[in-house]
Model the fold of this input.
Amino acid sequence: MVATVVALSACTPLINVHGQTPDPEDLELIEIGQSTRRDVEQRLGTASTSSVFSDNVWYYYSETTETVAFFKPEVTERKIIAILFAPDGRVDNIATYTEADGKPVELVSRVTPTAGNELTFLQQLFGNIGRFSNPGGEQ
Done:
């Protein structure tokens, strides 16, 4: 009986929440064309990140994963709220993205060639023996 309870409790999923997305009620208080960066930060808190090349987009990111026993974690929910600012600092648009909006990215595995010889470990280890001499002539 005890072994069954222990075995079943091992199958209980572990739920992890990463990031922070604002409450929908707080998000509704942000008015396009009226709210400023300061208003957004006061109502929603600090953004998870901002755009790479400028500070015109703030992102609020949240992800919920579920892990069962020793298996790989599975994403159950992912939500990104992007707040775009106009040049005058007022909110220009609010966009919400979910897992369905994501696109897979294929990583390219290439190695950048370097100039010179490629030496083995032993060549690197013993390659400098006898190469250096003492300029004063003393050993």
Q: What stands out?
A: Strands lie at 14-19, 49-50, 57-67, 74-85, 91-98. The radius of gyration is 28 Å. The chain has a mean pLDDT of 83. Helices lie at 2-10, 24-28, 37-44, 121-126.
